[in-house]
Amino acid sequence: MAPVKTSTPKPGRPARLSREQIVETALGCDLRTMTMRDLAERLGVSHSALYRWVRDRDQLLDLVSEVVVERILPEAEPTAGTWRQWLTDLAWGMHDQFLAVPGYAAHLATPHRHHAESFGRLRDRVVTAFELAGASRELAEQSWHIFGLGVVQWLGARQTGHDVGVDGPRFDLFLGVLLRGLPAREDAEE
After folding, report:
1. What is the pLDDT at residue 14?
2. What is the value of pTM for the model shown?
3. Who is most buried in 4, 96, 139, 143, counting CB within 10 A?
4. Ranges for the HTH cro/C1-type domain (predicted)?
5. Can you list the pairs that 13-19 forms with residues at least 24 positions away whose Cβ atoms lie under 8 Å?
């Protein structure tokens, strides 16, 4: 019996290249300055061969985001009793993984189109955590924005500032203050 093929490469595609190799190589590059030509050179393929696998830089960054988000999401789901620890674990995962990829945190901290599927999964899990903490759906959504923006901006500032020798507050202190204020709550009317 003949072995079953799991995927069929496009005609002309070099057999020695895969999306996994492309993403792993990109994860080692500074995403702020990396070009598709730089990536092709690191992979040892022609520029046009790389474009057979990845349409453009945006698609490449989407692939990188898929991998990074998969790495940071805790395996366990948050519960009413674990939501704060779950968010703490998630934030530390973001810290470790985003800062491990040169330029990734700085890239995320700038306005751009986020990969809808991977960041949608992240958003949904964080919103669920805030709902389990007692927030309404609307305030859980607002809390997601505060949490995501806060953590990503801290990481982006850390990555950019570290490059020029300027460090901000320690992440553990920042995260503790952030999570003590979340989930967002409506002000009580007097």
Report:
1. 45
2. 0.84
3. 143
4. 34-57
5. 13/49, 13/52, 13/53, 14/45, 14/49, 16/45, 17/43, 17/45, 17/49, 17/50, 17/53, 18/53, 19/53, 19/54, 19/63
